[in-house]
Amino acid sequence: MGKTFKEVGKTSTTSLDQSKFKKVPIEVAPDFFIHVDADRDGKVDDTTAGIDAWHWGKGKKGAVVLVNNNGTMTGIRAVGLGSAVDVKIDHDDKTVNGAADVADIAPLDIRRVGAAPPAGWKVTLSVSADDQQRIRIFDSRGASGNEIIGPGTQASYEFPDLSFTKKELGIEAICYAGKDPANKDFDGLVKLTLTVEKAGGSTATRSAQLRVAPWIMFNHFDEPEKVFVLKTVLSATNPGHNASFVAALSAAASAAGVALEQVDGAPWSSDRWMQDIMEFGFSELPGQKALRNVLETPRGRELENFPKTLLTNDLGYLRPAPVPASSSSLNSGGNLESTPPFTAPSGKKYPFGRIYYCPHRQLNPRDRLAPGYQEFLQRQIVQEPIEIDAGWLNVGHVDEIITFVPASGKLGFKLLLASPRQGRKILKSAPSAGKMLSGREYRPGYSAEMSVKDFLANGVDWGTFKQSAKEISDYNDQCQTHIDSAEKIFKKELGLKSGDIAYVPSIYLPAEPAAGATEADALTAGMVNMLVLGKQCIAPKPFGPVDGGKDLFEEDYRATLAACGLSVTFIDDWNTYHLLKGEVHCGSNTLRKPDASKKWWEFEH
Description:
- The chain is α+β, with helices and mostly antiparallel strands.
- 14% of the residues lie in helices and 33% in strands.
- The strands form 17 sheets. The chain has a 5-stranded antiparallel β-sheet, with no helix packed on it. Strands 5-17-16-9-12 form a 5-stranded mixed β-sheet, with no helix packed on it.
- The chain starts with a strand and ends in a 12-residue tail after the last strand.
């Protein structure tokens, strides 16, 4: 009768032996195999079947390696405007950095079957020259592991002693998909090759393919943990000093059950735009707690290095591409947002939502979000980016006109869009004697307060800045056209219906008084630019038309959010942010928690 035996093991039985309840040893020729966690359960697999290709989806195969970008911040040094920050990132050296680092190292075994091979055998583990710059393989997954393959050593490693039955190694990634450290295109896949050269000249090769865990950006549906805001270091009499804003934000965040971290503005020259310097996200290795990390945007201003100060063993740091020599406002976190999770009209599920941003200004394509960052975001795959035109705005950020909030119903959320159409509708229905922009200045030295009647009939006259009522009306129609275009894109990509969208009253003016100016600034504070902390929203006070002591823009927005099951707190950011071309969301940033029930490798690509 024919003999049968398992791939791994030293003994088996013939059918005759089984019938006699006897085990007869069968000699298995020595050999060596790569073993990885291809089934993504957090443990190295015993089988080697199917590990040479990587597949998306639940129940599919493909091992994962994590960018090990947590570590420690070692110092801050003043360097003129802003500060330099010294850090030690775990993937920057050739060792496993203690017991805490082990969880960030993916397991990798080399296993032998059969007896120890005779003299003359060679077993070599290798990667390509390109992949050598992208990963590190350690001689142990323990706290004292040292690099045997990687940028600090070599692309291949010959095992000096083949008497082992199992060699437990570890592997980490140095970069995400996008551009690698040598500025080469990297799709996120790494191939490991084990070459077994046997005495007598025969050679066998085995391979395993791993994917670098993508960086995944948080969205408003992820649980908030902490809000960051910068405290300006200015004279208390300076209208831009934000002490009152910080106090109001602290109270509102506390009411939502979220901590507020107040960052000293001194090392950062009071660069208050906390949203624009970073975005929080995470990456995950199967079987381990997700590693949250902070992406530094290529904005190139005083707060530039602040994200590095957040580096800890529990929070990583990344700058996936160089800061361009000539930076753009589009290189800001306010121009980088994510939708909630949804299912597309095609049936494709996006469990982490989709990132959206403005790639460039239509009238000046060279004014753009850094190409290296765009490529990085596209290469992460699971949050396939959506491009939205926000370049018609002076600042050009998508968070000025778009946000998403939780809502009841099958979809589970609503898209909120800034709407000049809704703003003018409310203005036209307001009492003509009602005031708007009460107690505000829009240009220094010129009171912006006026009656609704005057605004609708005469427009504005602030010294060197004048706009007739017709000019304002026509201009807001143009702005509405741009917003309508964004709405069409979201309807197409997310499958939204009209009932899934709510419109937030807004009014715009040209940013500059020069003839032919087209870029827009918000006249009334942009309420869409708000914080969403669970069921509590924190929005800028708009200073819209007032009737009976109530701001009609506020009341309209409050009703919109109440219909979604949300409450809202309005805070005054007029002097401290609005006049500087931003609002509440621009001046804050929220660290959130990943949804542990979702696994990115189950995404169907």
